[in-house]
Amino acid sequence: MASISVANVGIVFPIYDARGRSLKSRAYDSVRKRSHTSSSITLITALDGVSLELRDGDRLGIIGRNGSGKTTLLRVLSGIYEPTSGSVVIDGSVASMTDLTMGMDSDATGEENIIIRGILLGLTRKEAVSLIEPVRDFTELADRLQYPIRTYSTGMLLRLAFAISTSIKPDILVMDEMIGAGDAHFLEKARMRVQSLIGASSILAISSHNLPMIREFCTSAILLNNGQLLAQGSVDEVIARYEQLDGESPV
Amino acid sequence: MLTTATHQSNVRLALTDMSASLRGWRIVLLLGWTEIAKRYRRSALGPFWLTLSMAGTIGSLSVVYSYLFGLSLEAYLPFLTVGFVLWSFLSQSIIDASTAFSANGGFLLQVRIPRFTFPLQLMFRQLAILAHNSIVLLVVSILFPPAFSASMLLFVPAFALLVLFSTSLATITATLCTRFRDLPQAVASLMQIAFFVTPIMWKPEQLTGERQFIVDGNPFATFIDLTRTPLLGGTIREGLWLQAILVTLIAMGVAFAVFAKFRARISYWL
After folding, report:
1. DSSP chain B
2. Contact, A7 vs B166, CB < 8 A?
3. Which of A76, A202, A224, B195 has the greatest count of CB atoms below 10 A from its CB?
4. Looking at CA atoms only, how far is residue A246 from chain B in angstroms?
5. Cβ contacts of residue B240 below 8 Å, gap of 6+?
6. Which one-letter DSSP state was computed for residue A92?
7. pLDDT tens across A121-146, in order?
């Protein structure tokens, strides 16, 4: 039973300039009894009072303009950012598909990279090794898997990264935009694979600007604006509210 | 079932983080080993380049300083070698720690990975480098064999204390350096100064009288002395164990406090 419970979460980012990053300046300022505000720390509220409950079977679409806090919320749902106020409880294994090439070593071979990523995702070495054959089949890279990945073309690299990332079946799947990779032939395979991955996960949270895609995959949606939850409910209602917001003058 | 709950106390969350990092030892070994493997991939000698450069440094220093101090090479070279190898483990752990989190932003912002993984990974890497460097120790002990005795086994608990102490300092450095980006340079120069005021090139008994506090009050000197003496076949002076254990406990306490207080902030600082 996977679940995510987000209660009244706020995230405030400190944005430091070079002065705020410097211990020397901070020490100097405190000796001169200057207030911190005169130097350097700007606080940005990325999320404000967001509450959410996700249960088994929930497919949540997150929509909103650029800078509305979508990626920050996804990072909260993945357990990467611990909120500055409010609380988050995440039950279940999480896979966040935000950077497919995470942890890949360009000097290592394709096979080695499969093992590296497998272990990073929490597998034992033996389990990671058993991923090699399925990934070889899926990517159609055959013997190229024995070469260092710096010799791969961009498309090959993406295919490999995609195949490894989607080999693990997590309880909770978090995606920033729909992932896909490769040429037309591979794109169709990738699409089917993502669909089966989504089907196998018990909770999906995806942020996207692609509204038809949200309609296809999601059962509920939220609309974020300036870090606040503007609307929450069925996909159609929330999309309607988003389109209405689009008509209003940008903030 | 994996559970993350953020409303617990900082201390509880820090303990959960540390135990999850230890249970994720596969990730620690993998990330640590990847760094070493990179060095091997580009050159056949790999990290042995570090060992060679250390051997060169020790060789040149021993020729000059044994003459300056009027000591025989037999008396000076083993002393310098053991001290230098142990010192570079201690100081590199701390210097390396200054980028432990900032260099791994890619991981910390993409997946839920316990934070303590990164100090652990760095310590593993430094232990692997120490294993390479111990070849210099082997060569010197063949050239000038020490008087083997059972008391040499005391190196094991002494080294365990050194590892605990280094890990604590590395954790403090790693956390604070993520927040203050001018700190790594300061750490590097502090360790440079520490090298000169710690009895590595010179012998502790050369510094007597009112300057003796430089050795007695220097925690680095405590740990170098504690781990070097058994390897040279000597007797650890009285009170040194107690001093080392106390310093280790204090360092561990401070490290835990710093880590517990700032752990959740690390990903915001990246």
Report:
1. --EEETTS-HHHHHHHHHHHHHHTHHHHHHHHHHHHHHHHHH-SSTTHHHHHHHHHHHHHHHHHHHHHTT--HHHHHHHHHHHHHHHHHHHHHHHHHTTTTGGGHHHHTTS---TTHHHHHHHHHHHHHHHHHHHHHHHHHHHS-----GGGGGHHHHHHHHHHHHHHHHHHHHHHHHH-TTHHHHHHHHHHHHHHHSTTSS-GGGS-GGGGHHHHT-HHHHHHHHHHHHHTT--PPTTHHHHHHHHHHHHHHHHHHHHHHHGGGHHHH-
2. no
3. A76
4. 30
5. B222, B225, B226
6. S
7. 888 889 999 999 999 999 998 899 99
Best of A22, A76, A82, A149 to mutate (most B CBs within 10 Å, chain B): A82
Per-residue pLDDT of chain B (270 residues; tens, 9 = 90+): 466 777 788 899 999 999 999 998 998 998 888 888 877 777 777 778 889 999 999 999 999 999 999 999 999 999 999 999 999 999 999 999 999 999 888 788 888 889 999 999 999 999 999 999 999 999 999 999 888 888 899 999 999 999 999 999 999 999 999 999 889 999 999 999 999 999 999 998 888 888 888 888 899 999 999 999 999 999 998 899 999 999 999 999 999 999 999 999 998 888
Which residues of chain B does A75 touch, with a Cβ-Cβ cutoff of 8 Å?
109, 267
Asked if the interface predicted TM-score (ipTM) of this complex is over 0.90, the answer is: no
Q: Are A81 and A178 in contact (CB under 8 A)?
A: no
Contact B110 A80 (CB under 8 A): yes
Three-state secondary-structure class, residue A202: coil
CA distance B1 to chain A (A): 6
Q: Which residues in chain B are contacts of A105 at CB distance < 8 A?
A: 34, 38
How far is A236 from chain B, CA to nearest CA, in Å?
30
Contact in structure between A70 and A62 (CB atoms under 8 Å)? yes
Spatial contact of A171 and A202, defined as CB atoms under 8 Å apart: yes
C-beta separation of B48 from B139 below 8 A:
no
Structure tokens at A30: 């405190």
